[in-house]
Amino acid sequence: MTDAAELLGRTRELLAAHPPGSTGRLDFLRARFDAGLAWVHYPQGLGGLGAPRALQAVVDAELEAAGAPDNDPRRIGIGLGMAAPTILKYGTEEQKRRFLRPLWTGEEVWCQLFSEPGAGSDLAALGTRAVREGEDWVVDGQKVWTSSAHIARWAILIARTDPAVPKHAGITYFVCDMTDPGVEVRPLRQITGEAEFNEVFLTGVRIPDAHRLGEIGDGWRVAQTTLNNERVAIGGMRLPREGGMIGPVSRAWRERPELRTHDLHQRLLRLWVEAEVARFTGERLRQQLAVGQPGPEGAGMKLAFARLNQEISGLEVELRGEEGLLYDDWTMRRPELVDFTGRDAGYRYLRSKGNSIEGGTSEVLLNIVAERVLGLPAEPRTDKDVAWKDLAR
Amino acid sequence: MTDLLYSEEEEALRSAVRDLLTDHCAPADVISRTESGTPHDRALWKLLAEMGLAGLLVPEAQGGQGASAREAAVVLEELGRAVAPVPYLTSAVVATEALLACGDEELLGRLAAGRTIGALAVGLHSAPQAPFATVRADNGVLHGELTGIADAAVADVLLVPADDGGLYAVTADAVTVTPQVSLDLTRPLATVTLAGAAGRRVGDAAPAVRRALRAAAGLLASEQLGVADWALTETVRYLKERKQFNRPVGGFQALKHRLAQLWLEIVSLRAAARAAADALAFGEDADITVAVAQAYAAPVAVHAAEEALQLHGGIGMTWEHPAHLYLKRAKADSIAYGTAGAHRSALAALADLQAP
User: Fold this and answer.
1) What is the rounded average pLDDT of the residues B266-291?
2) Residue B226 falls inside a structural domain
3) Rounded CA gap, A107 and A103, in Å?
4) How many other C-beta atoms are found inside a 10 Å radius of the C-beta of residue B323?
5) Tens digit of pLDDT for each residue in A126-185?
6) 3-class DSSP state for residue A127?
7) Residues A340-346: contacts with CB within 8 Å, 24+ apart?
8) Which terminus of chain A has a smaller tally of CB atoms within 10 A, N or C?
C-alpha cells in the first residue's frame, strides 16, 4: 500500500525531473499524470497509484507549494467529476487509455448530453434515438442544459436503443464525438442574460460501437454512476464563516449603514444564522465521510444550499434599494466558468434561481429524502411496466 | 475545526441513558405523573445520579466525572427525547456551572453526586446577557420573591442573586416554594419567597449567572434536538402505519415533503447543537456558536412538535397521546434561556451586524 511518505517522495521526484519554472504547463501535467500523481486513488497507468483517496491532499499541497500548474479543475469539472468515474467503472481498457489522460490534463474538455426538452426530472423517459448500422450507431435527437458543449471535444451521452421495452431498460450509454458534422451546438440564453448552457441538436451523428460504455440496454445503470458523482460534488467545499452567499450581503450591511432598516436587520440575522448552521452541517457531513460513516446528510445539503442562496441574494437586492433596481450587464456572453457568488447582487439573485433546478430539482430531492432516508412509501408508478413507445408524452 | 461527530464513548453513554429511560420513563407514566402532586421523578433522578451523570461537568478533584459539555449534551438529547421530568439541565448544568464560576467545592461535590439538587433562582426565560431579578440582602439575610424558577419544587439548595452583587446558597427549608401552573408539564416553574432567609454567600452573582445561562442556552439546543428527533421519528413511524383512502398516509407527497423538510432542519440542528457543545467544552468561539445554535434550535423544535401534533390528526390532540408533552416542552424551551430573537440580537453585536 502506498503511504504518505512514498507519495511525497514521488511528488518531489516529479518536481525535480520537471521543474515547474522551466517546464511547459501541458508537459508538466502529462508528466504528473504519467507519474500516477494526477488522482492517486485511480489505478496505476491511468494517472494513479491505487492509493487511498485521502492522500491526494499530500500531493496537492506539495505541488502547490512548489508553484506547479494545476489542470484548472473548474473548467473541466464535468470530465473530472462525472465522465471519468464512469469511464473508470464501465470503460474497456482501450477506452480508459484513450480518454482519461487528455481528460485529466484538460487537453480535451467533456460535456454531458443527458437532459432533453421532454425529459427533465423524468430523465429515463429520454427520446434521443440510437439505431445500430453495422459497426456504428446513428443518433438523432435533442439535448439541453449542456454546459461547456461549445468547448467540448467529447460528450457522455445516453440514448434510447430499444423503444419497445420499459423506459429504464432501453437506454445505452455512449461517448459522443462533439466534432461530428451531425452535432450542432446553439447557445441557450438564460435569465441572467448570458448563455452558460447550450442546446445540442444531434442529426445522423455516427458513433462507433467501440465508443459504447457498458452493455447495450444497461445505460441507466451506467448513468447512476455519473449522477451519484454529480451529487457528491455539489456542496463539497469547506467554507470559512461568511464564505458563501452570506458574505457579500454582510459586507454591504457593514459598509453601507444608510441602507439599514429594522426589517432588513431581522431578516439578515435570521439568514446569517441559517448560513452558519449550513456551514456546520456541511462540515459535519465531511467529517462523517472522512471516518467512513457517510450519513444521508448529502441529499439535504443541496436543498439547504439552494434555498439559502436564493433567500440571501434576494435580500441583498432589496437591501441595495435604488441600486437594486439596476443590473450590471445584460450582454449575451458564453462564460467558460460558473461563479454563483460572482458579479453583482442582481446576477446572484437570478443565477441562484437555478440552484433548486439544476442537478435534481428540490421537489425531486425531497421525494428522495422521504423515500430513501425516512422510508416513506414511494410515489405510485404508472410507467414501470409500459414500453417506452407507449408512454404519454 | 470543531469535532461535530459523536465519539465511541459518547455513543456508549447515549445508549446507556437511552436504555435506562426506556425502562424507567414510559410516556404513559410521564403523563400520569404530571397531575400527581410530585411532577418530578425522584427515583429516575437517583438512577441517573448513580450513573455519575449529575457530575459530568465537575472536575474529578471536586467529586465529579471530569467530562465536558459534549457528554452532557448527549445526556440532554436523550432526556429531551423522553421529556424526562428530572432536574438535569437545571441542577447538573445551570446550578453546577454557577458554582463552578464561584468555586464552591463543598456544594459542587454534593451536586455532582446527585444527592443534592440545586436550582439557580433566575427566571427560566432569562437570556445570558439580560438583566435578572435579585432579592434584598441585609447582612446575609434575604428578603424578596423570585418567579419562574424551573425545578425549584424539587431543589434542596437555591442559588439566589441578591442586590449586593452576591450569589447566596439558601437551603430549601428556609424559603417558601410555591408551584406555578406551568405550560411545560415536565419542567414546572415555581415562585421562591424569601422572608428573612439565611443565605451563605458563595460568590459574585453576575459572572456566575452569565456563565450558567450561556451553558444552558448552548446545551438546551441538544435537548431541543432530542425533542425534535422524537417528534420526527414517531410521526414517520405513525404515518407508515396509519391508512386512509386505502393507502398509508405517509405516501401522500404533500406530507412526504413536509417530513423531508423537517428531517433537513433536524440534521442541521444536530450540527449546530454539536458545534455549541464542542465550543462550550473547549471555550473556543463559544459566544457566537451558542447564540447561533439557540437561535436556530428553538424554532426547529417547535416546528417538529407542531408537525407531530398536526400529522397525528385527532389522536395528537388527546391528553392520552404524548405529543402534547413534546409540544409544551418545545414551546417552553423556545423561551427558556432567551428566545431565538434575543440570541439573534446578541449576534448583531457579536458578528458586527449592527442594528440601524
Assistant:
1) 97
2) yes
3) 6
4) 25
5) 999 999 999 999 999 999 999 999 999 999 999 999 999 999 999 999 999 999 999 999
6) coil
7) A340/A245, A340/A309, A341/A244, A341/A245, A341/A247, A341/A248, A345/A248, A345/A249, A345/A252, A345/A313, A345/A316, A345/A317, A345/A319, A345/A320, A346/A317
8) N
pLDDT tens figures, A27-49: 999 999 999 999 999 999 999 99
**Interchain pair A265, B292: CB under 8 A:** no
pLDDT at residue A295 in the model: 63
Q: Select the residue of A257, A278, A376 nearest B251 (Cβ to Cβ).
A: A376
How many contacts, defined by CB atoms under 8 Å, are there between A and B? 124
Residue B312 structural domain: 207-350
What residue type is assigned to position A168 of the chain?
H
Domains identified in chain A and CATH numbers: 8-70 (no CATH), 110-224 (2.40.110.10), 234-373 (1.20.140.10)
- Which of A196, A230, A316, A358 is an active site residue? A230
For chain A, give the mean pLDDT: 93
Residues in A touching B257 (Cβ below 8 Å) = 363, 366-367, 370
Contacts of A292 in chain B (CB under 8 A): none
- ipTM value, please give it: 0.96
Our answer to whether residue A199 is catalytic in this structure is no
How many angstroms away from the CA of A253 is the closest CA of chain B?
7
Q: Are residues B178 and B223 in the same domain?
A: no
